[in-house]
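[agent] plan:
  1. take the single chain provided in the ticket
  2. run structure prediction with default settings
  3. attach C-alpha coordinates to the ticket
  4. add a short note for the reviewer (M.T.)
[agent] executing step 1
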Amino acid sequence: MQPLDTLDWISISLYFLVLIGIAIWVIRKKEENTEDYFLAGRNIGWFVVGASIFASNIGSEHVVGLAGTGASNKLPLLIYEIQAWVVLILGWVFLPFYARSGVFTMPEFLEKRFDARSRWVLSIFSIIAYVLTKISVTIYAGGVVVAALLGIDFWTGAIATVILTGIYTVLGGMRAVVYTETLQAVLLILGAAVLTYIGLDKVGGWSSMQETLGPEYFNMWRPATDPDFPWPSLLITSTIVGIWYWCTDQYIVQRTLTARNIKEGRRGTIFGALLKLLPVFLFLIPGIIALTLKMRGELHWDSPDEAFPVLMSNLLPSGLRGLVAAGLLAALMSSLASVFNSCSTLFTVDIYKKLKPNTPEKKLVRTGQIATVFVVIVGIIWIPIMANISGVLYEYLQSVQAYIAPPITAVFILGIFYKRINATGAFATLIMGIVVAFFRIALELIKENLDPDSFLFYLGDMNFLSFGAWFFLFCLIFLVVVSLLTKAPDREQIVNLTFGTITEEEKNNNKSSYSWVDIAISILIILIVIAVMIFFNGK
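[agent] step 2 finished; step 3 output follows
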Protein backbone atom coordinates (compact mmCIF):
# COMPACT_ATOMS: atom_id res chain seq x y z
CA MET A 1 0.00 0.00 0.00
CA GLN A 2 1.16 3.48 -0.83
CA PRO A 3 1.58 5.80 2.15
CA LEU A 4 -0.59 8.91 2.46
CA ASP A 5 1.10 12.12 1.28
CA THR A 6 0.61 15.80 2.14
CA LEU A 7 -2.55 16.29 0.05
CA ASP A 8 -4.10 13.20 1.60
CA TRP A 9 -3.45 14.50 5.10
CA ILE A 10 -4.93 17.86 4.14
CA SER A 11 -8.15 16.07 3.04
CA ILE A 12 -8.30 14.13 6.31
CA SER A 13 -7.57 17.27 8.36
CA LEU A 14 -10.36 19.19 6.61
CA TYR A 15 -12.79 16.37 7.42
CA PHE A 16 -11.92 16.49 11.11
CA LEU A 17 -12.14 20.31 11.19
CA VAL A 18 -15.65 20.25 9.72
CA LEU A 19 -16.63 17.41 12.08
CA ILE A 20 -15.37 19.37 15.10
CA GLY A 21 -17.21 22.47 13.87
CA ILE A 22 -20.51 20.58 13.62
CA ALA A 23 -19.97 18.98 17.02
CA ILE A 24 -19.25 22.34 18.69
CA TRP A 25 -22.32 23.92 17.05
CA VAL A 26 -24.55 21.13 18.31
CA ILE A 27 -23.01 20.97 21.77
CA ARG A 28 -23.71 24.67 22.28
CA LYS A 29 -27.42 23.84 21.96
CA LYS A 30 -28.23 22.81 25.54
CA GLU A 31 -30.00 19.52 26.18
CA GLU A 32 -32.52 20.39 28.82
CA ASN A 33 -34.43 17.12 28.81
CA THR A 34 -34.25 13.48 27.77
CA GLU A 35 -36.27 14.03 24.60
CA ASP A 36 -33.71 16.55 23.37
CA TYR A 37 -30.66 14.52 24.38
CA PHE A 38 -31.78 11.06 23.25
CA LEU A 39 -34.06 11.98 20.31
CA ALA A 40 -32.75 15.40 19.24
CA GLY A 41 -35.97 17.04 20.42
CA ARG A 42 -37.97 14.99 17.89
CA ASN A 43 -37.40 17.83 15.42
CA ILE A 44 -35.20 16.33 12.67
CA GLY A 45 -36.07 16.54 8.96
CA TRP A 46 -36.27 13.63 6.51
CA PHE A 47 -32.89 14.23 4.84
CA VAL A 48 -30.93 14.04 8.09
CA VAL A 49 -33.00 11.03 9.28
CA GLY A 50 -32.28 9.10 6.06
CA ALA A 51 -28.58 9.97 6.02
CA SER A 52 -28.29 8.97 9.67
CA ILE A 53 -29.96 5.59 8.99
CA PHE A 54 -27.50 4.90 6.17
CA ALA A 55 -24.41 6.08 8.08
CA SER A 56 -25.39 4.04 11.15
CA ASN A 57 -25.67 0.93 9.03
CA ILE A 58 -22.38 1.32 7.16
CA GLY A 59 -19.37 0.85 9.42
CA SER A 60 -15.70 0.47 8.53
CA GLU A 61 -15.85 -3.28 9.08
CA HIS A 62 -18.96 -3.29 6.88
CA VAL A 63 -17.20 -1.47 4.03
CA VAL A 64 -14.12 -3.63 4.19
CA GLY A 65 -16.12 -6.83 4.69
CA LEU A 66 -18.51 -6.18 1.80
CA ALA A 67 -15.60 -5.46 -0.53
CA GLY A 68 -14.06 -8.68 0.78
CA THR A 69 -17.28 -10.49 -0.14
CA GLY A 70 -16.89 -9.19 -3.68
CA ALA A 71 -13.26 -10.28 -3.71
CA SER A 72 -14.07 -13.82 -2.54
CA ASN A 73 -16.59 -16.42 -3.61
CA LYS A 74 -19.33 -15.28 -1.23
CA LEU A 75 -21.62 -13.28 -3.50
CA PRO A 76 -24.81 -14.81 -1.96
CA LEU A 77 -24.15 -12.56 1.05
CA LEU A 78 -25.07 -9.69 -1.26
CA ILE A 79 -28.70 -10.34 -0.31
CA TYR A 80 -28.06 -8.70 3.06
CA GLU A 81 -27.04 -5.51 1.22
CA ILE A 82 -30.08 -5.17 -1.01
CA GLN A 83 -32.60 -4.95 1.81
CA ALA A 84 -33.71 -1.47 0.91
CA TRP A 85 -37.24 -2.86 0.67
CA VAL A 86 -37.05 -3.88 4.35
CA VAL A 87 -36.17 -0.28 5.29
CA LEU A 88 -39.41 0.69 3.54
CA ILE A 89 -41.29 -1.71 5.84
CA LEU A 90 -39.96 0.29 8.79
CA GLY A 91 -41.41 3.53 7.41
CA TRP A 92 -44.70 2.23 6.04
CA VAL A 93 -45.61 -0.45 8.62
CA PHE A 94 -43.77 -0.10 11.93
CA LEU A 95 -42.97 3.61 12.33
CA PRO A 96 -46.61 4.82 12.65
CA PHE A 97 -47.08 2.54 15.65
CA TYR A 98 -43.81 3.62 17.26
CA ALA A 99 -44.51 7.31 16.67
CA ARG A 100 -48.11 7.14 17.93
CA SER A 101 -47.00 5.45 21.14
CA GLY A 102 -44.49 8.25 21.85
CA VAL A 103 -41.76 5.82 22.93
CA PHE A 104 -38.00 6.43 23.21
CA THR A 105 -36.95 2.80 22.82
CA MET A 106 -38.07 -0.51 21.36
CA PRO A 107 -38.27 -2.21 24.80
CA GLU A 108 -40.52 0.67 25.89
CA PHE A 109 -42.85 -0.12 22.96
CA LEU A 110 -43.04 -3.75 24.06
CA GLU A 111 -44.11 -2.61 27.52
CA LYS A 112 -46.92 -0.52 26.05
CA ARG A 113 -48.03 -3.35 23.76
CA PHE A 114 -47.53 -6.15 26.32
CA ASP A 115 -46.06 -5.54 29.79
CA ALA A 116 -42.90 -4.63 31.73
CA ARG A 117 -41.48 -8.17 31.61
CA SER A 118 -40.87 -8.03 27.86
CA ARG A 119 -39.32 -4.60 28.25
CA TRP A 120 -36.82 -5.82 30.81
CA VAL A 121 -35.84 -8.88 28.77
CA LEU A 122 -35.28 -6.97 25.53
CA SER A 123 -33.47 -3.99 27.09
CA ILE A 124 -30.94 -6.05 29.08
CA PHE A 125 -30.37 -8.46 26.21
CA SER A 126 -29.89 -5.57 23.75
CA ILE A 127 -27.31 -3.78 25.91
CA ILE A 128 -25.26 -6.95 26.42
CA ALA A 129 -25.44 -7.77 22.71
CA TYR A 130 -24.34 -4.23 21.75
CA VAL A 131 -21.33 -4.23 24.05
CA LEU A 132 -20.16 -7.71 23.08
CA THR A 133 -20.86 -7.48 19.34
CA LYS A 134 -21.45 -4.11 17.70
CA ILE A 135 -19.09 -2.06 19.83
CA SER A 136 -16.27 -4.56 20.09
CA VAL A 137 -16.31 -5.57 16.42
CA THR A 138 -16.54 -1.96 15.22
CA ILE A 139 -13.69 -0.81 17.45
CA TYR A 140 -11.42 -3.69 16.46
CA ALA A 141 -12.10 -3.46 12.73
CA GLY A 142 -11.83 0.32 12.88
CA GLY A 143 -8.48 0.11 14.64
CA VAL A 144 -7.18 -2.20 11.92
CA VAL A 145 -8.42 0.17 9.19
CA VAL A 146 -7.00 3.27 10.87
CA ALA A 147 -3.64 1.59 11.42
CA ALA A 148 -3.47 0.47 7.79
CA LEU A 149 -4.57 3.77 6.27
CA LEU A 150 -2.74 6.23 8.45
CA GLY A 151 0.32 4.14 9.15
CA ILE A 152 0.01 4.50 12.91
CA ASP A 153 -0.02 2.01 15.77
CA PHE A 154 -3.23 -0.04 16.09
CA TRP A 155 -3.83 0.93 19.70
CA THR A 156 -3.23 4.61 19.04
CA GLY A 157 -5.67 4.63 16.13
CA ALA A 158 -8.37 2.62 17.88
CA ILE A 159 -8.30 4.50 21.18
CA ALA A 160 -8.03 7.96 19.56
CA THR A 161 -11.02 7.27 17.32
CA VAL A 162 -13.10 5.85 20.17
CA ILE A 163 -12.32 8.78 22.48
CA LEU A 164 -13.02 11.43 19.82
CA THR A 165 -16.32 9.76 18.90
CA GLY A 166 -17.19 9.33 22.57
CA ILE A 167 -16.59 13.02 23.35
CA TYR A 168 -19.07 14.45 20.86
CA THR A 169 -21.57 11.65 21.57
CA VAL A 170 -21.46 12.31 25.33
CA LEU A 171 -21.63 16.08 25.04
CA GLY A 172 -23.93 16.48 22.08
CA GLY A 173 -26.30 13.54 22.45
CA MET A 174 -28.47 12.37 19.57
CA ARG A 175 -28.44 15.74 17.84
CA ALA A 176 -24.64 15.57 17.49
CA VAL A 177 -24.89 11.99 16.26
CA VAL A 178 -27.42 12.59 13.48
CA TYR A 179 -25.82 15.78 12.13
CA THR A 180 -22.27 14.38 12.11
CA GLU A 181 -23.64 11.21 10.49
CA THR A 182 -25.10 13.30 7.68
CA LEU A 183 -21.64 14.65 6.90
CA GLN A 184 -20.15 11.19 7.19
CA ALA A 185 -22.74 9.65 4.85
CA VAL A 186 -22.06 12.25 2.15
CA LEU A 187 -18.30 11.80 2.47
CA LEU A 188 -18.49 8.01 2.38
CA ILE A 189 -20.70 7.97 -0.72
CA LEU A 190 -18.52 10.45 -2.61
CA GLY A 191 -15.29 8.68 -1.75
CA ALA A 192 -16.53 5.19 -2.64
CA ALA A 193 -18.18 6.46 -5.84
CA VAL A 194 -14.90 7.94 -7.05
CA LEU A 195 -13.07 4.68 -6.31
CA THR A 196 -15.72 2.61 -8.15
CA TYR A 197 -15.58 4.88 -11.22
CA ILE A 198 -11.79 4.87 -11.44
CA GLY A 199 -11.67 1.12 -10.76
CA LEU A 200 -14.14 0.25 -13.52
CA ASP A 201 -12.16 2.39 -15.93
CA LYS A 202 -8.95 0.63 -14.88
CA VAL A 203 -10.30 -2.88 -15.56
CA GLY A 204 -11.96 -1.93 -18.84
CA GLY A 205 -15.59 -1.98 -17.72
CA TRP A 206 -18.08 -4.58 -16.49
CA SER A 207 -17.82 -6.93 -19.49
CA SER A 208 -14.07 -7.09 -19.08
CA MET A 209 -14.47 -8.21 -15.45
CA GLN A 210 -16.91 -10.92 -16.55
CA GLU A 211 -14.41 -12.21 -19.09
CA THR A 212 -11.70 -12.43 -16.44
CA LEU A 213 -13.75 -13.98 -13.63
CA GLY A 214 -16.35 -15.89 -15.64
CA PRO A 215 -20.14 -15.31 -15.52
CA GLU A 216 -20.77 -17.89 -12.75
CA TYR A 217 -18.79 -15.75 -10.30
CA PHE A 218 -21.58 -13.16 -10.50
CA ASN A 219 -24.28 -15.60 -9.38
CA MET A 220 -25.73 -14.87 -5.92
CA TRP A 221 -28.22 -17.74 -6.08
CA ARG A 222 -26.88 -21.16 -5.08
CA PRO A 223 -28.86 -24.43 -5.42
CA ALA A 224 -31.18 -25.42 -2.58
CA THR A 225 -28.77 -28.26 -1.82
CA ASP A 226 -25.75 -25.96 -1.41
CA PRO A 227 -24.12 -26.63 1.99
CA ASP A 228 -23.24 -22.97 2.64
CA PHE A 229 -25.85 -20.73 0.99
CA PRO A 230 -29.01 -22.66 -0.05
CA TRP A 231 -31.14 -20.02 -1.75
CA PRO A 232 -34.54 -20.72 -0.02
CA SER A 233 -33.00 -20.52 3.46
CA LEU A 234 -30.88 -17.54 2.42
CA LEU A 235 -33.94 -15.62 1.19
CA ILE A 236 -36.09 -16.42 4.25
CA THR A 237 -33.47 -15.94 6.97
CA SER A 238 -32.01 -12.77 5.47
CA THR A 239 -35.53 -11.30 5.50
CA ILE A 240 -36.05 -12.29 9.15
CA VAL A 241 -32.71 -10.80 10.15
CA GLY A 242 -33.46 -7.75 8.00
CA ILE A 243 -36.79 -7.04 9.73
CA TRP A 244 -35.16 -7.50 13.13
CA TYR A 245 -32.28 -5.15 12.29
CA TRP A 246 -34.12 -2.46 10.32
CA CYS A 247 -37.54 -2.47 12.00
CA THR A 248 -37.08 -3.49 15.65
CA ASP A 249 -33.47 -2.73 16.64
CA GLN A 250 -32.91 0.39 18.75
CA TYR A 251 -29.70 1.05 16.82
CA ILE A 252 -31.64 1.92 13.63
CA VAL A 253 -35.18 2.76 14.76
CA GLN A 254 -33.97 5.50 17.11
CA ARG A 255 -33.03 7.56 14.03
CA THR A 256 -36.62 7.62 12.81
CA LEU A 257 -37.95 8.57 16.24
CA THR A 258 -35.99 11.84 16.01
CA ALA A 259 -38.24 13.01 13.15
CA ARG A 260 -40.61 15.90 13.83
CA ASN A 261 -43.61 13.83 12.67
CA ILE A 262 -44.60 10.56 10.97
CA LYS A 263 -44.43 12.18 7.53
CA GLU A 264 -40.80 13.27 7.98
CA GLY A 265 -39.88 9.96 9.59
CA ARG A 266 -41.38 7.91 6.74
CA ARG A 267 -39.68 10.07 4.11
CA GLY A 268 -36.45 9.61 6.06
CA THR A 269 -36.81 5.83 5.78
CA ILE A 270 -37.57 6.13 2.04
CA PHE A 271 -34.43 8.24 1.60
CA GLY A 272 -32.48 5.78 3.76
CA ALA A 273 -33.77 2.90 1.59
CA LEU A 274 -32.62 4.75 -1.51
CA LEU A 275 -29.15 5.17 0.00
CA LYS A 276 -29.15 1.50 1.04
CA LEU A 277 -29.07 0.58 -2.65
CA LEU A 278 -25.64 2.18 -2.96
CA PRO A 279 -23.42 -0.32 -1.07
CA VAL A 280 -23.82 -2.83 -3.91
CA PHE A 281 -22.27 -0.37 -6.33
CA LEU A 282 -19.89 1.44 -3.99
CA PHE A 283 -18.39 -1.34 -1.88
CA LEU A 284 -19.13 -4.74 -3.44
CA ILE A 285 -18.01 -3.81 -6.95
CA PRO A 286 -14.63 -2.39 -5.77
CA GLY A 287 -13.99 -5.83 -4.24
CA ILE A 288 -14.74 -7.51 -7.58
CA ILE A 289 -12.49 -4.96 -9.31
CA ALA A 290 -9.67 -5.76 -6.87
CA LEU A 291 -10.02 -9.50 -7.57
CA THR A 292 -9.98 -8.87 -11.33
CA LEU A 293 -6.78 -6.85 -11.08
CA LYS A 294 -5.20 -9.50 -8.85
CA MET A 295 -5.98 -12.26 -11.34
CA ARG A 296 -4.40 -10.13 -14.05
CA GLY A 297 -1.27 -9.67 -11.93
CA GLU A 298 -1.82 -5.91 -11.57
CA LEU A 299 -2.64 -5.89 -7.85
CA HIS A 300 -1.61 -7.95 -4.84
CA TRP A 301 -3.30 -8.62 -1.53
CA ASP A 302 -3.25 -11.58 0.85
CA SER A 303 -6.73 -11.47 2.41
CA PRO A 304 -10.03 -10.50 0.67
CA ASP A 305 -10.65 -7.98 3.47
CA GLU A 306 -7.57 -6.10 2.26
CA ALA A 307 -9.13 -5.59 -1.17
CA PHE A 308 -10.73 -2.19 -0.53
CA PRO A 309 -7.80 -0.41 1.20
CA VAL A 310 -5.24 -1.87 -1.26
CA LEU A 311 -7.37 -0.83 -4.23
CA MET A 312 -7.84 2.62 -2.79
CA SER A 313 -4.13 3.02 -2.08
CA ASN A 314 -3.01 1.97 -5.55
CA LEU A 315 -5.68 3.48 -7.81
CA LEU A 316 -6.57 6.83 -6.35
CA PRO A 317 -4.50 9.97 -6.93
CA SER A 318 -3.10 12.09 -4.15
CA GLY A 319 -5.80 14.01 -2.28
CA LEU A 320 -8.59 11.67 -3.37
CA ARG A 321 -6.84 8.88 -1.48
CA GLY A 322 -7.12 11.00 1.65
CA LEU A 323 -10.78 11.71 0.89
CA VAL A 324 -11.64 8.01 0.76
CA ALA A 325 -9.54 7.38 3.87
CA ALA A 326 -11.58 10.07 5.61
CA GLY A 327 -14.71 8.29 4.34
CA LEU A 328 -13.63 5.06 6.01
CA LEU A 329 -12.89 6.94 9.23
CA ALA A 330 -16.32 8.51 8.93
CA ALA A 331 -17.91 5.08 8.58
CA LEU A 332 -16.19 3.89 11.73
CA MET A 333 -17.11 6.97 13.76
CA SER A 334 -20.74 7.02 12.66
CA SER A 335 -21.26 3.38 13.66
CA LEU A 336 -19.58 3.93 17.02
CA ALA A 337 -21.55 7.09 17.74
CA SER A 338 -24.81 5.33 16.91
CA VAL A 339 -24.22 2.35 19.16
CA PHE A 340 -22.87 4.55 21.99
CA ASN A 341 -26.03 6.64 21.95
CA SER A 342 -28.33 3.61 21.61
CA CYS A 343 -26.74 1.90 24.63
CA SER A 344 -27.02 5.10 26.63
CA THR A 345 -30.69 5.48 25.71
CA LEU A 346 -31.55 1.88 26.55
CA PHE A 347 -29.83 2.04 29.94
CA THR A 348 -31.22 5.45 30.96
CA VAL A 349 -34.82 5.07 29.73
CA ASP A 350 -35.41 1.34 30.11
CA ILE A 351 -33.41 0.53 33.23
CA TYR A 352 -32.47 3.60 35.31
CA LYS A 353 -35.75 5.48 34.81
CA LYS A 354 -37.76 2.32 35.51
CA LEU A 355 -35.91 1.84 38.80
CA LYS A 356 -36.09 5.55 39.68
CA PRO A 357 -39.20 6.94 37.95
CA ASN A 358 -39.12 10.32 39.74
CA THR A 359 -35.62 11.27 38.58
CA PRO A 360 -35.45 14.88 37.24
CA GLU A 361 -34.89 15.32 33.49
CA LYS A 362 -31.47 16.95 33.89
CA LYS A 363 -30.26 14.08 36.05
CA LEU A 364 -31.49 11.57 33.44
CA VAL A 365 -29.47 13.41 30.78
CA ARG A 366 -26.42 13.29 33.06
CA THR A 367 -27.03 9.58 33.63
CA GLY A 368 -27.14 9.06 29.87
CA GLN A 369 -23.80 10.87 29.52
CA ILE A 370 -22.22 8.74 32.26
CA ALA A 371 -23.61 5.59 30.63
CA THR A 372 -22.00 6.58 27.33
CA VAL A 373 -18.63 7.10 29.04
CA PHE A 374 -18.95 3.67 30.67
CA VAL A 375 -19.74 2.02 27.33
CA VAL A 376 -16.70 3.73 25.75
CA ILE A 377 -14.46 2.40 28.55
CA VAL A 378 -15.87 -1.13 28.25
CA GLY A 379 -15.37 -0.98 24.48
CA ILE A 380 -11.70 -0.07 24.91
CA ILE A 381 -11.18 -2.81 27.52
CA TRP A 382 -12.72 -5.32 25.12
CA ILE A 383 -10.22 -4.53 22.32
CA PRO A 384 -7.45 -6.96 23.39
CA ILE A 385 -10.03 -9.76 23.68
CA MET A 386 -11.24 -8.97 20.17
CA ALA A 387 -7.65 -8.91 18.94
CA ASN A 388 -7.28 -12.52 20.02
CA ILE A 389 -10.56 -13.96 18.74
CA SER A 390 -11.68 -11.58 16.00
CA GLY A 391 -10.53 -13.82 13.17
CA VAL A 392 -13.12 -16.36 14.23
CA LEU A 393 -15.66 -14.08 15.80
CA TYR A 394 -16.27 -11.63 12.97
CA GLU A 395 -17.42 -14.33 10.58
CA TYR A 396 -19.23 -16.08 13.39
CA LEU A 397 -21.22 -12.95 14.25
CA GLN A 398 -22.95 -13.15 10.88
CA SER A 399 -24.55 -16.42 11.90
CA VAL A 400 -25.34 -15.26 15.45
CA GLN A 401 -27.84 -12.77 14.01
CA ALA A 402 -29.76 -15.69 12.51
CA TYR A 403 -30.21 -17.05 16.06
CA ILE A 404 -31.18 -13.92 17.98
CA ALA A 405 -33.43 -12.34 15.32
CA PRO A 406 -36.28 -14.94 15.03
CA PRO A 407 -37.91 -14.55 18.49
CA ILE A 408 -37.65 -10.74 18.50
CA THR A 409 -38.95 -10.47 14.93
CA ALA A 410 -41.83 -12.83 15.69
CA VAL A 411 -42.91 -10.83 18.77
CA PHE A 412 -42.86 -7.48 16.96
CA ILE A 413 -44.55 -8.70 13.76
CA LEU A 414 -47.37 -10.63 15.41
CA GLY A 415 -47.65 -8.00 18.14
CA ILE A 416 -48.58 -5.44 15.49
CA PHE A 417 -50.52 -7.63 13.06
CA TYR A 418 -52.45 -9.89 15.48
CA LYS A 419 -54.28 -8.25 18.36
CA ARG A 420 -54.83 -11.58 20.15
CA ILE A 421 -51.12 -11.90 20.97
CA ASN A 422 -50.72 -11.20 24.68
CA ALA A 423 -48.03 -10.37 27.23
CA THR A 424 -47.58 -13.96 28.40
CA GLY A 425 -46.98 -15.18 24.84
CA ALA A 426 -44.48 -12.38 24.11
CA PHE A 427 -42.52 -12.88 27.33
CA ALA A 428 -42.41 -16.67 26.96
CA THR A 429 -41.27 -16.40 23.32
CA LEU A 430 -38.47 -13.95 24.13
CA ILE A 431 -37.18 -16.09 27.00
CA MET A 432 -37.45 -19.29 24.95
CA GLY A 433 -35.77 -17.58 21.99
CA ILE A 434 -32.80 -16.36 23.98
CA VAL A 435 -32.31 -19.80 25.58
CA VAL A 436 -32.48 -21.58 22.21
CA ALA A 437 -30.14 -19.03 20.58
CA PHE A 438 -27.43 -19.51 23.21
CA PHE A 439 -28.01 -23.28 23.18
CA ARG A 440 -27.40 -23.35 19.42
CA ILE A 441 -24.21 -21.27 19.83
CA ALA A 442 -22.99 -23.67 22.52
CA LEU A 443 -23.74 -26.68 20.30
CA GLU A 444 -21.70 -25.14 17.48
CA LEU A 445 -18.74 -24.75 19.79
CA ILE A 446 -18.86 -28.34 21.15
CA LYS A 447 -20.29 -30.25 18.18
CA GLU A 448 -16.94 -31.91 17.43
CA ASN A 449 -17.25 -33.70 20.75
CA LEU A 450 -20.79 -34.95 20.08
CA ASP A 451 -21.95 -38.21 18.53
CA PRO A 452 -22.34 -37.53 14.75
CA ASP A 453 -25.51 -39.60 14.73
CA SER A 454 -27.15 -37.74 17.63
CA PHE A 455 -29.90 -35.13 17.37
CA LEU A 456 -27.77 -32.57 19.24
CA PHE A 457 -25.01 -32.90 16.64
CA TYR A 458 -27.57 -32.48 13.85
CA LEU A 459 -28.95 -29.38 15.57
CA GLY A 460 -25.48 -27.87 16.05
CA ASP A 461 -24.30 -28.77 12.56
CA MET A 462 -27.37 -27.55 10.68
CA ASN A 463 -26.69 -24.71 8.23
CA PHE A 464 -27.21 -21.45 10.12
CA LEU A 465 -29.54 -20.08 7.42
CA SER A 466 -31.75 -23.18 7.51
CA PHE A 467 -31.74 -23.12 11.31
CA GLY A 468 -32.81 -19.46 11.33
CA ALA A 469 -35.74 -20.13 8.97
CA TRP A 470 -37.08 -23.12 10.93
CA PHE A 471 -36.48 -21.37 14.26
CA PHE A 472 -38.56 -18.39 13.13
CA LEU A 473 -41.45 -20.67 12.17
CA PHE A 474 -41.23 -22.36 15.58
CA CYS A 475 -41.26 -18.94 17.33
CA LEU A 476 -44.39 -17.89 15.43
CA ILE A 477 -46.24 -21.11 16.35
CA PHE A 478 -45.04 -20.97 19.97
CA LEU A 479 -46.13 -17.33 20.33
CA VAL A 480 -49.60 -17.96 18.90
CA VAL A 481 -50.22 -21.13 20.92
CA VAL A 482 -49.17 -19.61 24.27
CA SER A 483 -51.25 -16.48 23.58
CA LEU A 484 -54.36 -18.45 22.66
CA LEU A 485 -54.04 -20.61 25.78
CA THR A 486 -53.92 -17.56 28.05
CA LYS A 487 -56.05 -14.47 28.63
CA ALA A 488 -56.60 -12.06 25.73
CA PRO A 489 -55.18 -8.51 26.17
CA ASP A 490 -57.52 -5.68 27.16
CA ARG A 491 -58.56 -3.58 24.18
CA GLU A 492 -57.93 -0.35 26.10
CA GLN A 493 -54.25 -1.29 26.49
CA ILE A 494 -53.62 -2.10 22.82
CA VAL A 495 -55.68 0.60 21.10
CA ASN A 496 -53.66 2.08 18.20
CA LEU A 497 -50.86 -0.41 18.88
CA THR A 498 -52.10 -3.09 16.45
CA PHE A 499 -53.69 -2.97 13.02
CA GLY A 500 -56.91 -4.38 14.45
CA THR A 501 -57.32 -1.56 17.00
CA ILE A 502 -56.45 1.58 15.01
CA THR A 503 -59.05 4.31 15.44
CA GLU A 504 -60.62 6.09 12.47
CA GLU A 505 -58.90 9.31 13.52
CA GLU A 506 -55.47 7.69 13.41
CA LYS A 507 -56.24 6.05 10.07
CA ASN A 508 -57.03 9.46 8.62
CA ASN A 509 -53.92 10.99 10.17
CA ASN A 510 -51.79 8.24 8.64
CA LYS A 511 -53.34 8.72 5.19
CA SER A 512 -52.50 12.42 5.30
CA SER A 513 -48.85 11.66 6.15
CA TYR A 514 -47.82 10.53 2.67
CA SER A 515 -48.32 11.49 -0.98
CA TRP A 516 -48.17 9.83 -4.38
CA VAL A 517 -44.48 10.82 -4.58
CA ASP A 518 -43.68 8.74 -1.48
CA ILE A 519 -45.54 5.76 -2.98
CA ALA A 520 -43.87 6.14 -6.40
CA ILE A 521 -40.33 6.32 -4.98
CA SER A 522 -41.00 3.32 -2.73
CA ILE A 523 -42.20 1.27 -5.73
CA LEU A 524 -39.12 2.36 -7.70
CA ILE A 525 -36.84 1.16 -4.88
CA ILE A 526 -38.56 -2.25 -4.83
CA LEU A 527 -38.17 -2.55 -8.62
CA ILE A 528 -34.44 -1.72 -8.37
CA VAL A 529 -33.99 -4.41 -5.69
CA ILE A 530 -35.72 -6.97 -7.93
CA ALA A 531 -33.55 -5.87 -10.86
CA VAL A 532 -30.35 -6.38 -8.81
CA MET A 533 -31.54 -9.85 -7.74
CA ILE A 534 -32.19 -10.79 -11.37
CA PHE A 535 -28.95 -9.23 -12.66
CA PHE A 536 -26.66 -11.25 -10.36
CA ASN A 537 -27.76 -14.65 -11.67
CA GLY A 538 -24.51 -15.79 -13.28
CA LYS A 539 -25.78 -15.54 -16.86
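[agent] step 4 note for reviewer: Residues 6-218+269-390+512-535 form a domain with the Sodium/glucose cotransporter fold (CATH 1.20.1730.10).
[agent] ticket updated
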